[in-house]
Amino acid sequence: MTDLGTPGLDLPDHRGRTRLDQAGRDLTGNPDVVIRDVELLATAWHVLRRTTYDYRHRDGRWTTEQRETYDRGDGATILLYDVSRRTVLLTRQFRYPAYVNGHPDGMLIETAAGLLDDDDPAGAIRRETSEELGITVGELEHVFGVWMSPGSVTERLHFYAAPYTAADRTGPGGGVASEGEDIEPVELDFDDALTAIADGRIADAKTIMLLQWAALTGPFGPTPKTVTPPA
Ligand SMILES: Nc1nc2c(ncn2[C@@H]2O[C@H](COP(=O)(O)OP(=O)(O)O[C@H]3O[C@H](CO)[C@@H](O)[C@H](O)[C@@H]3O)[C@@H](O)[C@H]2O)c(=O)[nH]1
Ligand SMILES: [Mg+2]
Fold first, then answer.
1. Would you give the distance in Å from CA 49 to the centre of its chain?
2. Which top-level group of life is the source organism from (predicted)?
3. Nearest ligand by distance to the CA of 115
4. Which residues surround ligand 2, an ion (CB under 5 A)?
5. DSSP code string of 173-229
6. Contact, 170 vs 136, CB < 8 A?
7. What is the interface pTM, i.e. ipTM, of the complex?
């Protein structure tokens, strides 16, 4: 805060954002929730807020609650699969939050994923698939939209799946070097990927969800949907 104002509120923060304390103040969808106040606790790479609201319990009693929310926007992720070769194309990259919380080296195997930024979910996942895996995807299948950590993180993650072949490779992948990304494309046999869930080599929620979807009702399931490659 300065004499001239507060970055993220009435002054642009270092990412040009203002009015970050307005999110949620206009919520009216739930008659048992009345938003009272929104405080901006941190505006760094992403945004941390504390919201005070009145909440009517199931027995009719009203209490005042506070919840902190971490807002990094929404994201999208994709499982790329090749039914004929029975493979999936994943990423491997360093994830500091996992490293600091018990993962032995922080190198996580994941489906390609990224934040939407200013794109719609389908546009964002096409961009991320190209940046991270060097693959230009054709037809996309929307699988589900999920809140991954709804007690504290606002993010909704949009899940997609699409077939890939060697002919879809249009770039090197690897991520955006100027953003510090260093992403290794990893092709796994599908059955090995399922084994990797069981033995802990794959320990990322979105990746496990998409692999299990693929085994249950997706392309490797008992009645796989036929996906026609684009002409
Ligand atoms: N300097 C800096 N850079 C950051 C920070 N946080 C993220 N970045 C940069 O922003 C990039 C974001 O890359 P994306 O590909 O857009 O997102 P992601 O990290 O892969 O996130 C995806 O996966 C997450 C984990 O599963 C998901 O939570 C998220 O929804 C998204 O799908 C990172 O690679 C990194 O370069 C930060 O605190 N500081
Ligand atoms: Mg990413």
1. 20
2. Bacteria
3. 1
4. 113-114
5. -S--GGGT---EEEEEEHHHHHHHHHHTS---HHHHHHHHHHHHTSTTSSSPPP-PP
6. yes
7. 0.94
CATH topology (fold) of 75-216:
Nucleoside Triphosphate Pyrophosphohydrolase (3.90.79)
Could you state, in order of their start, the residue ranges of all structural domains in the chain? Answer: 1-71, 75-216
Q: What is the pLDDT of residues 65-111, one digit of tens each?
A: 999 999 999 999 999 999 999 999 999 999 999 999 999 999 999 99
Q: Would you state the structure tokens that stand for residue 215, as one six-digit string?
A: 């085994």
Task: Give the side-chain half-sphere CA count within 13 A for 106.
Answer: 9
DSSP-based three-state secondary structure for 75 = strand
- Cα–Cα–Cα angle for 77, 70, 107, rounded to 5 degrees: 50
State residue 91's pLDDT score. 98
Whether 131 is in the pocket of ligand 1, judged by its Cβ within 6 Å, is no
Q: What is the mean pLDDT of residues 142-169?
A: 96
pTM of the model: 0.93
What Rg value do the Cα atoms of the chain yield, rounded? 21
CA distance 127 to 10: 33
Amino acid at 139: E
| 114 CA to centre of ligand 1 in angstroms | 6
